[in-house]
Amino acid sequence: MNKRSSVKEIVSELKSLGRPNCVEGMARYGIRSKGVLGIPMPSITKMAKTIGRDHKLAQELWKTDIFDARLLAALTDDPEQVTEKQMDRWVEGFDSWAICDGVCMHLFNETRYAYNKAFEWTNRDEEFVKRAGFALMASLAVHDKKADDTAFLKFLPIVGRHSTDDRVYVKKAVNWALRQIGKRNLRLNKKAVETAKKIARIDSKSAKWIASDALRELESAAVQSRLKSKERS
User: Fold this and answer.
1) Average pLDDT of every residue of the chain
2) Could you tell me if residue 61 is left (phi over 0), alpha (psi between -120 and 50 degrees) or otherwise beta?
3) Where in the chain is the domain with CATH 1.25.40?
């Protein structure tokens, strides 16, 4: 394969790398997207490095409706060329936590619209669209090293507001966003812990799980030690 490979050639190679025996196992972990081939992520990553950034090709790969090809599309698209319209179109096609998180972590978080979409999508009702909003929050907290704390402080009230959503893929994403914000630095850790304690007082099983799981990590000796060390350096 080279950078000039066609979609047809790429799909053919993807199918040759497919592992049918892995598909059932992926389904047990909630990955039931369209056209799952069961390709290990390292193989998809290797293909993406060979192909490089190619916005047009990524659009064609997404249209195949093949799960593995869509992951490859996220890894090869150019975030500078991604439009809001594309993000809204792709998010409508999310049908598992894996494609949702993969696209958000490898592509959408690098676009100029990431913060706006995090606010917008968390207010949507569709399970994987809503998850995408919180997945963006979590990913931005990890990867956007230049962002000011203010950006993440604005996310915390949203985390609290949606902590009663008991759908498994939403509540896990709410928890994920809360934990990642709280592991960014000591100031945000304090605010995230305060948010978690407020959430814990809500009469909701989902909220109580989100809070207890987040507090277990955010108040742990390991996290506190790392953040204090980071503050001193």
Assistant:
1) 94
2) alpha
3) 99-233
DSSP string of the chain, one letter each residue: --TT--HHHHHHHHHHH--HHHHHHHHHTT---TT-----HHHHHHHHHHH---HHHHHHHHTT--HHHHHHHHHHS-TTT--HHHHHHHHTT--SHHHHHHHHHHTGGGSTTHHHHHHHHHT--SHHHHHHHHHHHHHHHHH-TT--HHHHHTTHHHHHHTTT---HHHHHHHHHHHHHHHTS-HHHHHHHHHHHHHHHTSS-HHHHHHHHHHHHHHTSHHHHHHHHHHHH-
- To the question of domain 99-233 being in CATH 1.25.40, the answer is yes
Does the pLDDT of residue 80 top 60, yes or no?
Answer: yes
- Please provide residue 76's backbone torsions phi and psi, each rounded to the nearest 5 degrees: -110, -15
Distance separating alpha carbons of residues 175 and 209, to the nearest angstrom: 9
Greatest CA separation for the chain:
56
- pTM of the prediction? 0.93
The answer to whether the CB of 100 falls within 8 A of the CB of 94 is yes
Interatomic CA distance for residues 131 and 15, integer angstroms = 29
Tokens 């990553």, residue?
45
Report the distance separating Cα 79 and Cα 179, nearest Å: 26
The candidate with the shortest Cα–Cα distance to 106, out of 148, 126, 68, 77, is 77
